[in-house]
Amino acid sequence: MAWWRRGRGRKATPHDGSDLASARTHLAEFARSRRGVEAYVEPATNVTATTVVLIAHDGEWTRRALPSRPQAFDVARGLDVPVYDVNLTGYPARMRAWTTRQRRDGRT
């Protein structure tokens, strides 16, 4: 099947949350440079590590993997922004609206 051959020769980048310093720096810069930022902690799955999603007032968002759930909450709380467990709250509608606008405008 053709889809089996698509990834040949390419190396996958691990998204296991092993680069904690880089993730902290990126998340801190995002939170500092935008208004109304909130953090959402996503659980680990069979495919992805635990992640933190930061969502700004306009719906712009970024996601970074972190090594564990407790570290994800610690990093998010350290940004001095509201922190939510996505399993309990879900994602805000503004995140979906921003992503839809980006796709419509051909930016993603």
Strand order of the largest sheet: 3-2-1-4
Oligomer: single chain
Q: Estimate what percentage of residues fall within beta strands.
A: 15-25%
The poorly predicted ranges are 7-14
Query: What does the average pLDDT come to?
Result: 87
Outline type: globular
* SSE class: alpha+beta
Largest sheet: 4 strands, mixed
- The number of domains: 1
Order of helices and strands: HHEEEHEHH
Number of helices: 5
Can you count the beta strands? 4
Euclidean distance between termini CA atoms: 27 Å
Task: Give me a quick take on this structure.
The chain has 108 residues and is of the alpha+beta class. It has one domain. It has helices at 2-5, 20-33, 69-78, 86-89, 93-104, and strands at 38-42, 50-55, 61-66, 83-85.
How would you explain this protein's 3D organization?
- The two termini are 27 Å apart.
- The protein is 41% helix and 19% strand.
- It is built from five helices and four strands.
- It has 108 residues and is α+β, with helices and mostly antiparallel strands.
